[in-house]
């Protein structure tokens, strides 16, 4: 068994440092916030995570590789999980369908307790469907072959994944003789984007969607590119201005103390790395990632989603950083702080920075094709090194790493985003965009009601899709209230659907 | 120059006669109503048709062959026509966008006068976009190569065509600095289906759609398969019961008189065919097609859409059939009737039945892949020979002719259709489904309002997308009223859009 260290895949920009403008600090060029997909693959020991307490059956469904052409391509098996049907009011009871995102579906199933917990209230059947090219849902028979090259990866797209869900649901309902069952979609993060987009594209298949922490506006020029890092920074400043300042100053200290081989050796020792650093960028990237993920999982109770963490982990990190007497070396304080994230259990012997920038990761591919989310780091509000997003550099790296050119405008062409209020005010219905403002992804999400039934539920103290997580005894009141609102809205959708259905039978 | 004869491409079922159940008359097995696509290609002399009186510029736009994957495929040039911009209120004036269907876009442009005529009222820019794989918009550089085989044809799908429109419009608006222009979609027949589906799938790109004679419900089991032929038959019965009966009886007469080679020679002579019949099915198919197309273009004024025809052509056909004294040979009467359709100008020397059932036609491919519209002919209400749709036979023929298996459930999975009222009552907006009840395609269309802004405009005496045709001095009052309603609804969509837009600027 490998030691419980963590490696973070860093996919973008790394091989391109040499062509970046000189004014961009090396470390800045390496930050590229991602969803959780890389974690899903690189979790060093999945067995460390509590195995899902939820009961389900694992099934497989044969899918076309390209739904939108008739090219002769091999089909593949999509995995999906089906909860117990004993409380399901068949044949017209609701189906609660989780839109699997960039990882193993069992991981999402065990971290999306909300769906399991509320299903019995609705006499609903629970289905978790895995996203193609993740987990066991591999085209071409194996992950190695699916991820072999740009050709084999070329059907890893969001539209294909949505079509998988549409075909699966249509077939499932037919086989269950449940054609009249209302389907409600759920998803968090990228899965929330899928849920919202699926409701918009397939309204005849699903009557509504709970899209939690779904940054569907984090594209092109819809939100300022500084949004994400500014929000991470704001989460730290909110806990402690001195902590924020310490981190902001640490990058220069890190550059200073990392000049030359001997200093890099010292730095590696200071941060208890398993191997020696090749450059300071490796380290600053490792730190930046921790801060970003901390902002995402800044939950008010102890959790073990990405890592085992205490309640309010940013507060803990800052408390640690702030706890040292004047004169303590800044990087020692930084190390102590980040250890809250990487080593809360205190069992890590050394930290493994290793990642394979040329390795094919699913989210890396998606970021290099459709999911082009420009990210900058501002001088004023960010605690990270200043960085201005360069699409040219981004593209070059994608060509280098994946042999593919991104289509940065495709997502907004296919799914919209610009001026979303005008576009959807009189169109669409039954979507909840839930967001917590601590979550840095909330800045790219829908934070205002679009219409009477396209609703934004915003909590000031929520982090990344906390509402979807299993309930705990420590849930704060605002979270309990948020979930009540969600249940009430979903109940309304189903009620309206049944009423309309009965009316159509009676006509 | 070829003589003005007409050949009708018959694509389906022909090679399969031997495996059809014995009880199905040979002639019945050959009928397969189609859209106008085959005509668009086989029009013997396009110059016969009045060249568009409308002014436009022809442009080309480079498109991806597969929008939904990143497979490396050659791009192609999509043709589109742009009307004069002198009356366009740029940069926020509306764009009226015709969703090109299965044929040369110039043909649709010249037959869709409504759009050209009303554009100045709205200070709108007119754009007609050609559908991929039709007209000049050929992948792989030429029609021959695009239609070479199932592999080359595999990207001829509706979803790809809609994505072409979405990408073209997005780019066009950006290049015109007209991002805030409201786009209104127009389309007739399959083009109307595209317009409606585009409004549903790309609400952020187009604010509304006029879908004229768009049979989006002619799939699977949504409407009875007898609908189309029953409606054609009803159009004839409405004009004359004796005419209806004569046609209904003619198939047996045709079988009787077509037994053996000598009789086939006589039949060929009786119907003035350019070559001898190989079997009676060739002839019954030629007749059936005429009746179906007559029902589609049963306009109340002389027209020249598919063929030069008098006003109320079915009335004329029946008048001819009914005009002969008792004892006249039934097939002589039938020939006289059908000559109204095939030879109204009286200039045809002989009729050319020739078609190439193995030739690759665009609509044939679409019917063999996505556009699977089951068609039967009932014993009771149809004047055509009884025929029960057999999906197995249909599929076999598609495999034989195109080397492709249809996906008969895909259209309803992708676009919906079942229980459309429940699905869309609280979803979507700003679609007009206009239909004339003489049009046999109206039976597969939306004939009831779905919601406050998804509206069905139904005229009792209208035929196939008559509302989109150029206005004439002979337009009946109901047609003038119908168009007024359409103008009024479209004006409302644009008004609401501007109001919402101004409100969003003011916030």
Task: Fill in the keyword field for this structure.
homodimer, 507 residues, alpha/beta, Rossmann fold, Four Helix Bundle (Hemerythrin (Met), subunit A), eight-stranded mixed β-sheet, 10% strand, globular, Peptidase_S28 (chains A, B), Lysosomal Pro-X carboxypeptidase-like (chains A, B)
Question: Can you describe what's shown?
Answer:
The structure is a homodimer of 507-residue chains. Chain A is α/β, with parallel strands linked by helices and 507 residues long. Chain A folds into two domains: 252 residues, Rossmann fold (3-Layer(aba) Sandwich); 176 residues, Four Helix Bundle (Hemerythrin (Met), subunit A), CATH 1.20.120.980. Helix content of chain A is 40%, strand content 10%. Chain A contains 18 helices and ten strands. In chain A, the strands form two sheets. Chain A has an eight-stranded mixed sheet, sandwiched between helices. A two-stranded antiparallel ribbon of chain A has the order 7-8. In chain A, a hairpin with a 3-residue loop joins strand 7 and strand 8. In chain A, helix 8 crosses helix 9 and helix 8 crosses helix 11. The radius of gyration of chain A is 23 Å and the shape is globular. Chain A starts with 36 loop residues before the first helix and ends with a helix. The N terminus of chain A is likely disordered. The interface between A and B is large, with 55 and 55 residues. Chains A, B: Belongs to the peptidase S28 family. Chains A, B: Keywords: Glycoprotein, Hydrolase, Protease, Signal. Chains A, B: This is Lysosomal Pro-X carboxypeptidase-like. Chains A, B: Pfam families: Peptidase_S28. Chains A, B: One of its GO terms (molecular function) is dipeptidyl-peptidase activity.
């Amino acid at each position: 068994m490998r030691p419980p260290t963590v490696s973070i895949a860093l996919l973008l920009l790394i091989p391109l440092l040499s062509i970046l403008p000189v004014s961009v600090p090396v470390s800045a060029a390496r930050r590229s916030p991602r969803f959780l997909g890389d974690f899903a693959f690189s979790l060093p020991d999945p067995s460390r995570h509590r195995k899902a307490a939820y009961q389900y059956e694992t099934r497989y469904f044969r899918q076309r590789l390209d739904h939108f052409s008739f090219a002769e391509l091999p089909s593949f098996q999509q995995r999906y999980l089906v909860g117990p049907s004993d409380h399901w009011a068949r044949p017209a009871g609701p189906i609660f369908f989780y839109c699997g995102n960039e990882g193993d579906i069992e991981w999402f199933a065990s971290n999306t307790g909300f769906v399991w917990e509320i299903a019995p209230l609705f006499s609903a059947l629970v289905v978790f469907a895995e996203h193609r090219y993740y987990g066991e849902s591999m085209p071409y028979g194996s992950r190695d072959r699916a991820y072999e090259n740009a050709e084999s990866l070329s059907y890893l797209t969001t539209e294909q994944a949505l079509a998988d869900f549409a075909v699966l649901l249509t077939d499932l309902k037919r086989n269950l003789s449940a054609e009249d069952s209302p389907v409600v979609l759920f998803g968090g993060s990228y899965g929330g984007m899928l849920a919202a987009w699926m409701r918009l594209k397939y309204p005849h298949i699903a009557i509504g969607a709970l899209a939690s922490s779904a940054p569907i506006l984090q594209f092109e020029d819809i939100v300022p590119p500084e949004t994400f890092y500014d929000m991470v920074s704001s989460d730290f400043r909110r806990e402690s201005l001195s902590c924020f300042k310490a981190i902001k100053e640490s990058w220069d200290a890190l550059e200073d103390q990392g000049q030359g081989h001997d200093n890099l050796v010292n730095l590696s020792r200071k941060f208890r790395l398993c191997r020696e650093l090749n450059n300071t960028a490796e380290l600053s990237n490792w730190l930046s990632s921790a801060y970003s993920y901390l902002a995402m999982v800044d939950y008010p109770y102890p959790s073990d989603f990405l890592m085992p963490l205490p309640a309010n982990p940013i507060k803990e990190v800052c408390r640690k950083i702030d706890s040292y007497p004047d004169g303590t070396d800044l990087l020692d304080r930084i190390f102590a702080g980040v250890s809250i994230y990487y080593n809360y259990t205190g069992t890590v012997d050394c930290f493994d920075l290793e990642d394979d920038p040329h390795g094919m990761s699913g989210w890396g591919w998606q970021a290099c094709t459709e999911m082009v989310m420009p990210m900058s780091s501002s001088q004023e509000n960010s605690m990270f090194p200043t960085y201005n997003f360069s699409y040219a550099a981004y593209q070059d790296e994608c060509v280098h790493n994946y042999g593919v050119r991104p289509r940065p405008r495709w997502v907004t062409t296919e799914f919209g985003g610009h001026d979303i209020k005008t576009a959807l005010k009189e169109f669409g219905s039954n979507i909840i965009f839930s967001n917590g403002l601590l979550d840095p992804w909330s800045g790219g999400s829908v934070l205002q009601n679009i219409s009477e039934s396209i609703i934004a539920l915003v909590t000031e103290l929520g982090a990344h899709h906390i509402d979807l997580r299993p309930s705990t005894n420590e849930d704060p009141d605002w979270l309990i209230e948020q979930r009540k609102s969600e249940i009430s809205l979903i109940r309304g959708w189903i009620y309206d659907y049944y009423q309309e259905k009965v009316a159509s039978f009676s006509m």
